[in-house]
UniProtKB/TrEMBL annotation:
It comes from the Bacteria. Residues 453-674 form the Solute-binding protein family domain. GO terms for biological process: peptide transport. It comes from Novipirellula artificiosorum. SUPFAM superfamilies: Periplasmic binding protein-like II. This is Extracellular solute-binding protein. GO terms for molecular function: peptide transmembrane transporter activity.
Length: 787
């Protein structure tokens, strides 16, 4: 179709009819803008288009063509015109061909003498940007400026416009006290257009750096202040930024004072204070005379390691499967009769701390040989008869130390001399040593109950700091005399502190943080070889949670894959991190022997909120029918109280789970546990988020699912599965029974399985002896040495 503008009445009438048709057509194919109810009009017979502000960027790029009054007036939004230098010709002749936005299948033409003006797209963007800058609306101006920089970088006025934006935005932010953003704006302006108001910009830079340095010093963020000062000294001459010379002299004086105070503390043998002051002196001024040498000297006199942790331990127990902090710190203070060293092709690899062990070929007798001559104090004081009594107490039902799995396995315990204990088993057992993970305290070796048997003892505790000091005479001058655990607000905060030199080790990383740290030359990152299984464990007598149908609904109502991949892994692919269908680890690789208890044919339930709602209704109907038969009232549906440990991963996961359950119409209350706690007090929560170290399913199955385990399950099928597992005589039977138990747990849901995580740890490369493939951070703490 061709659109001709003419002054004759006949042609004008035809044009009005065409315009009416165009408006009707445009109303059908209109582009939607914000708000959703608004429409973008691409053509009109009169007037001018409304000014839409930021919503302009929701439209397709277009030029505005305005027609003269003689031609009938009006305007159209045309696709960007192909004109030389994107300007109206000085003496145009002939016709202009254009396409109207929204009518891409038709082209139109108009004579040049009938066109009053053309408002080009980039000019409109510049005008909008300039107006918003003048009003101080920099947030509104930024999108327009960004489009100009991207699409029209050669526009002659863009450099000034961009400079005005940076300068005036910096002034506004400075008045608001946001000095960090002000400095960023001014430096960007200085790099982009050094000629723009050069003297004024330098004066502003000097003033804002002075205020920012004062703020950092007041907040005791000395290392960050020094890093900023060092960068400014390289980029700006001191004669132009007077603040640089001022703070350089101030930092020199501060560093000298801290260095001298560190020397005094060293001479007074207050090595903790000396170490802190010496490191602060070089943080303030890295090239302070004698600073680095003083730090090395103090580290040699009093070796100390700072460990960043997400949770501080309140209970020290190296055998806890549900408490990471308790397990970690417990290994530092206490030894265990049999300690897991790693995973092998047939279950865990365990070490007898008092000597050596032998197993008869028929796996019916386990001999423990005590070798005191190879042991350090106090472990060398162990008596054979005492150890035999401990093993016997563990098998007697009346004893507070009774453990049913050991009682079911052992038939008789005897002494063959003072240094050899014989354990006769009822039947062949594939791994009896895993049943004897018993914490050893001072009472075993003639000391007081609770006395440490590990290399360290707990010395000082506060909300965010715990000190562990060497409990015995050091093996050499380089042995670490003190390990300081510093609790960080999040794993990412710990990464920042490690990179800044405030920490030497990080106990627990998550995949996204591990990726960041692996790029550092000074940091080494290692994965723990054994994954943890994350789950929700019922912990109350809530009548609805007691029903398998309702628990199944809860599981269908959690988008586990989305939470794991999107929230916890931050979109990264991490081998071994996966959604699971049962309480046991799936291993890291498909053929990983660590996954011997996991049935890969049982797939995790998908996220099906509609099915979850249906199951909630079905469960309520079942409970109502049961109540009518018993002539009882239907229990009230009280809010679900979901507890979680005080760390950021558990918090993020539970917040996401809570949101998804609320979409099902359920009321959920989040309960954050006190620091160091991983299990709630009675009647304070209904479900608890647990990260469990189910590293040896043969024993951990009962510790997790048994009546006295974490889940406290009284389910008969679960109980039968546990008993048959403990009666297994070879690895084939063990695996078969564990797969059956996985099947039972998948159907009865004594716990709600979520996902498996592979955690990491990180440390400075000059800290030697930590080791690889360690199951606990402090497994080799006695061998740590600074290089």
């Amino acid at each position: 179709m061709t659109f001709h503008c003419n002054l004759t009445n006949r042609i004008a009438k035809r044009r009005r009819l065409q315009m009416a048709w165009l408006v009707a057509t445009l109303a059908i194919g209109v582009v939607q803008a914000l708000p959703a109810s608004a429409q973008i009009i691409n053509y009109a017979e009169s007037g001018v288009p409304d000014r839409v502000g930021l919503e302009l960027l929701q439209e397709d790029p277009h030029d505005l063509i305005f027609f003269t009054e003689k031609a009938g007036g009006g305007w159209v939004k045309a696709r960007l015109l192909d004109l030389p230098q994107r300007r109206m010709p000085r003496n145009p002749k002939g016709s202009l061909r254009f396409d109207i936005v929204g009518l891409d299948t038709k082209s139109f033409t108009a004579k040049w003498e009938e066109i009053e003006k053309i408002d080009f797209w980039e000019v409109r963007l510049e005008r909008e940007t300039d107006d918003l800058i003048a009003k101080g609306d920099f947030q509104g101006a930024f999108p327009f400026l960004s489009v100009l920089i991207r699409d029209y970088p050669e526009r002659p006025g863009l450099r000034k416009l961009r400079s005005e934006f940076l300068w005036k935005d910096a002034i506004k932010r400075a008045k608001e006290g946001d000095f960090e953003a002000t400095l960023a704006m001014l430096e960007e302006l200085r790099r982009y257009a050094p000629e723009y108001q050069s003297d004024a910009v330098l004066r502003a830079l000097s003033g804002v750096t002075d205020r920012l340095m004062a703020k950092l010093v007041e907040q005791d963020r000395l290392e960050l202040a020094q890093q900023m000062l060092s960068r400014l000294e390289k980029e700006y001459p001191t004669d132009k930024l007077t603040s640089i010379g001022k703070w350089s002299r101030t930092f020199q004086q501060m560093a000298e004072e801290k260095r001298d105070a560190a020397i005094q503390a060293r001479d007074a043998k207050d090595y903790r204070l000396a170490r802190t002051l010496a490191r602060e002196s070089i943080a303030v001024k890295p090239d302070i005379v004698g600073g680095q040498a003083l730090v090395r000297e103090i580290d040699q006199i009093y070796p100390l390691v700072r460990v960043g942790v997400l949770q501080s331990a309140t209970v020290l127990d190296p055998t806890r499967i549900d408490n990471w902090a308790s397990r970690r710190a417990g290994r530092l203070v206490y030894r265990t009769l049999f300690e897991v060293q790693g995973a092998g092709p047939e279950g865990g690899e365990y070490e007898f701390i008092f000597g050596d062990t032998e197993m008869t070929p028929d796996r019916r007798q386990l001999d423990l040989m005590i070798e005191p001559e190879k042991l350090e104090d106090p472990l060398n004081r162990i008596e054979g008869y005492y150890l035999a009594d401990v093993l016997t107490e563990r098998a007697q039902r009346h004893s507070p130390d009774y453990f049913s799995a050991w009682a079911a396995a052992v038939e008789a315990i005897g002494l063959d001399g003072p240094k050899q204990i014989q354990c006769l088993l009822r039947r062949s057992h594939v791994l009896p040593t895993c049943l004897l993970q018993i914490p050893v305290d001072g009472s075993w070796v003639g000391g007081k109950p609770g006395d440490p048997t590990g290399a360290y003892r707990r010395d000082e505790t506060s909300d965010d700091l715990v000190r562990y000091v060497l409990a015995r005479k050091p093996k050499d001058d380089q042995q670490i005399k003190e390990i300081v655990e510093i609790r960080t607000a999040s794993a990412s905060d710990g990464v920042s502190l490690l990179l800044q030199g405030e920490l030497d080790v990080l106990d627990q990383l998550f995949p996204a943080d591990a990726v960041r740290l692996r790029k550092s030359r000074d940091i080494r990152v290692q994965n723990y070889p054994l994954p943890t299984v994350h789950m929700l464990v019922p912990c109350s007598d809530h009548p609805y949670i007691a029903e398998p149908t309702f628990r199944r609904a809860l599981l269908y109502g959690i988008n586990r894959q989305d939470i794991l991949q999107g929230e916890l892994l931050e979109g990264l692919e991490s081998p071994g991190c996966q959604v699971v269908s049962g309480p046991f680890p799936a291993g890291i690789e498909p053929d990983d022997p660590l996954g011997y208890a996991y049935d890969r044919e049982i797939l995790p339930r998908n996220y099906e909120p509609r099915l979850a709602k249906l199951l909630i209704t079905v469960n309520e109907s079942q409970m109502k029918g049961s109540a009518e038969v018993k002539k009882e009232e239907l229990p009230a549906m009280t809010p679900l109280r979901l507890a979680f440990p005080a760390d950021n991963l558990s918090r993020v996961a539970c917040e996401a789970i809570s949101t998804q359950w609320q979409l099902l119409g359920l009321e959920v209350e989040l309960v954050e546990l006190p620091v160091g706690r991983t299990y709630p007090d009675p009647d304070t929560a209904d479900l608890v988020y647990v990260s469990a170290a189910v590293w040896e399913p043969i024993i951990d199955a009962r510790r997790l699912l048994g009546p006295k385990g974490l889940a406290g399950s009284e389910d008969q099928l679960v109980g039968l599965g546990l008993r048959r597992l403990e009666e297994a005589r070879n690895w084939r039977e063990v695996r078969d029974q564990l797969l059956i138990l996985h099947f039972i747990a998948n159907n009865e849901l004594p716990i709600l399985p979520l996902w498996q995580m592979v955690d990491s740890y990180a440390y400075r490369r000059n800290l030697l002896g930590i080791g690889r493939d360690i199951v606990s951070l402090y497994q080799n703490a006695g061998k740590w040495r600074w290089q």
